[in-house]
Amino acid sequence: MASNNGGESGEKMEGWKKGLKCVGNWMTPKDKNEWLKDMRGMLSLMATVIATMTFQSGINPPGGVLSPDEDNGVKCQNQSCPGQSVLALVYPDDYKIFLYCNTICFVSSSAVCLLLVSGFPLRNRFFTWLLSIGMCVILSTLSLTYLFGAQMVAPGWNNLLTMYGLIIVVWLILLVLIAIFLFLRLFVWILTKCIE
């Protein structure tokens, strides 16, 4: 009887292995080599374009910058200086949030570009997972940057807060679903490696 229990246990383990492999195969693309090549190109393009956009919106902020005094003298002791963002003076709290989101997006997209150029193998699942999480951070902070920038320059933006709130809630739900999928894929991969 003891050998029978061991056989049942072995069959259960084989069933788990088959189930995990089935789920793992469902979550991975069919032609992996072509997919990896396409993904590297698309991620490089997206990260580069987003880094360029966020750099530009950091240097040339929405609402423009203050122009120099008429006498071209720069007097900046306890007042606003030429070149400062107009919206940083009008909406300082909102502008800080805009700048935080923009900076996180710029640094994240630059990091993804650096990782892609560095030659890390995309065949490594952890590296692919890391890039996917990085792109989620990039796109989320890019969306927030847009929302806060549009909020500051739109006339009567207080009336649009419910629309912005709805957009953020929908985005967060989508982001949570994607994060669950990515973590589930990583978890299945780790379990498959541990069982083998």
UniProtKB/TrEMBL annotation:
InterPro entries: PGG_dom. Keywords: Membrane, Transmembrane, Transmembrane helix. This is PGG domain-containing protein. It comes from Sphenostylis stenocarpa. The chain crosses the membrane at residues 42-59, 97-117, 129-149, 161-191. GO terms for cellular component: membrane. The keyword Transferase does not apply. Pfam families: PGG. Residues 34-150 form the PGG domain.
